[in-house]
Each structure stands twice: as structure tokens, then as C-alpha cells.
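Can't paste images in this forum, so I'm doing it all in text. The chain is below; anyone willing to post the predicted C-alpha cells underneath?
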Amino acid sequence: MGALFVTGAVGLAAVSSGCSSEVKAYEKKGAPTGKAAQVPAPPTLPQKPKKDGDSYTVFGAVHDLHSKVHSPDVKGKKLTIVGYVVKTNAVKCQDDSKALEEQCAPACSMPDDIKKGTPADCKAPAPTFWIADSLEEKTEMIPVLGWASNFAGIKGAIEEMDKATSLEKQAEVKFMDQQGRVLPNPLPAVGAKVAITCTYGTTSRVMGTSSEPKYGVLGCGNDYVIKVIQPAPEQANLPGMKPRKELKAEKK
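Text version of the structure:
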């Protein structure tokens, strides 16, 4: 028993001796030298408003259209959206046979006798204009259609409006096209700021079937409202028609 005890003690001493060591004190290092790393600042996201008063902005309508929470509030619903008219398809075609692709007004869509309407074999798009939140915006735009049946009707409206002798009399003109649709007065023109009340969604069936899955489309029935907040610098016109008359207000 004595020999066993001594052996264990020697082993313990050996282990204790092997574990003992000096710990070096912490030495504070100097500040790093050299050129500091260039860390880019976090991007600043644009704070776009969703509403303009009680009306939607284009951004707000598009945002809510794709929102799981808000989509039921706007999709297929009658909304008022405020924006600038930045584009219209009442423009001359490069190739009349490709009017649908170019989104333009071919010559056949504006017959001399508008009472006959557009010829059946004339392939023309539905009169459309696009609105955006700024005049410079060319991507996030919402098309607006259904406010006119065809370009022949727009031609008739222009001819009727230009018979007026003053701005006041021109504003009183109400023109109904061959399909029974009363056209807006003034006609939508690039540069105007407008408030439009029509049905908003990814598709519209007011003039055939139109689809715009990304930005949506405003389809206007007979109860549409187009309110001009800021007039366009020039009145709407059609290719091939003479320049519009610049009328003045009546003298009081």
C-alpha cells in the first residue's frame, strides 16, 4: 500500500509541474496605418407618395395593385388617379399597316366623312393616352382607354370644338361619337395634369380586351370622369389635321 501511495504522489507532482506556465500580459497594439477603406453609404430610397389628397398617384396605384394586402382595394375597382399625360397614340404612323404594333393613328381611321365611322378593314388601336407622376417619366405609366371609341370620333370632336369663337363657348361643346360615347372636353393632350376616375386593374374589356400586368390599365366606361387640373401647353390634335385654333376668353 505504501509503494502505491508514493507512486501516485509522484505522478501528481509531474502533472502539476507540466501545467504550470507564465501567461504573457496583453500588449496594446497601435492604430492601423495606411489608407482607410472606402465604405459606400447606404442607398437613399425615394419617398414617393401613394396619395395626392384623396386620389391615388400612379406610384400608389401600381404599388397597391401588386400588394397582397392592398390589391383587393384597387384591383377591378373604380379609382381616381392623378397624373400627367406623357404620351398619346394620336400620332402619325411610320407604317399604317403596323398601326396596332406602333400604337398610332393610321390614315384610314380618320375618314373624310366621320359619320360613316372607321372602315371595317382599318386596323387601328383604341384611342389611348398614358399618365405618369411626372412629365419626365417614360416607364411607370398607366394607359387610359375607353374615353373615345375611335379616332374618327376624336376628329369629329376637334372639328366641332374649333367652330367655337371663344374659350367659354368651346368649353360648352359636347360631342357624342357614333357609338354613343361623349368625348372629354378638352381632349387629353400631352403635358396636361389630370385626375381620372375609371376602373383600374391589370386588364380592361371596355374596348375589346386590353392587358397591362405590370402597371395596370384604366378602363373608362360611359360614366368616366377626366378632370383637367393643369391644361396642356397645346390642344390635342390628330395627324393630318390643320393646326388647332388658339381661342381667347370673351371680353367682359
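The mean pLDDT is 88. Strands lie at 51-52, 55-57, 77-88, 128-132, 142-145, 193-201, 203-204, 210-211, 217-219, 225-230.
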